[in-house]
Structure formats: structure tokens, C-alpha cells
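Incident log, structure service

09:12 report received: a user says their structure output differs between two submissions of the same chain.
09:20 pulled the input from the user's history:
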Amino acid sequence: MINYQEIELNTKEDFKKVPNLYFVHLTDMHIGKTVVFFKINNKNVTISKELIKVLNKVTVKYKDIVLITYSVTIECSKILKDKGIDYLVNDDYFWSDESYINRG
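09:34 re-ran on a clean worker, output below:
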């Protein structure tokens, strides 16, 4: 199971609780939302199976989530868009779940 952390963004000061790589991308429109931060190593890609497991555990409405992870597969990106979840990634990863799992 992937480790994650929920961080409530009640004020701009709460942005500092988000890792440096990402907090610079947060804006006033994120105040009132909850960051769901995937604690993974750099270069790791989040696949849809992991994403769904985490989304089933969070207690926040999808529209109130800002998901942060290093990278997501095509399937993850579609799930996030379909559910109306804002997300920030360091790297766009245009592989499918299957191609990432079977990468060798």
C-alpha cells in the first residue's frame, strides 16, 4: 500500500506543510482544500490501482482534494479528471499502468 498524507490548507501558512517541490505551485484557489500527498520516492509513478485504494480511504469530497505525487499513468490522469480532482505532478508520464508495471 502506498503511503500518503492528508494536509488541510486552511491558510497560506499551511502551504509550508507541503514539500518544497510542490508548495510553490499552490495558489489562493487551493485554500480550503485538502492535499493528499503520496509519500513515494522521486521517479516513482502512481498507478490507478494505488490511486483508487487511497481515494477509497480519504474522508474528503473529491472536489476538495488536491492530489500531489511525482507522476501518474494515463489511467490515473483519466480517473482524476473524471472525478474532478485537482492534481499536481512533477513529471507527466504517458505510459499506461500495464506498460509501467511491465517495464522490465
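09:41 both user submissions now match this output. Likely a transient worker issue. Closing.
09:42 reviewer note: The mean pLDDT is 90. The radius of gyration is 13 Å.
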